[in-house]
Design brief:
mainly alpha; 3 helices
């Protein structure tokens, strides 16, 4: 269960942001800076511990 939750909740945010960041960095280096923003969200269980939710 740990790996499945980490794969979705952590890597699910990290993987696309890694590619977006690389793209934005390349664009900026080529003189085309982007006014981009990233908004990550979380469930309440991700903000406060709950019994049986150790993977969060």
């Amino acid at each position: 269960e740990w790996d499945a939750v980490i794969r979705v909740h952590l890597k699910g945010h990290f993987a696309p942001l890694r590619h977006a960041g690389a793209y934005w960095r390349t664009e900026a280096k080529e003189g085309r800076p982007r006014a981009a923003r990233v908004v990550n969200t979380s469930s309440g269980a991700g903000l406060q511990g709950s019994v049986g939710q150790a993977t969060y």
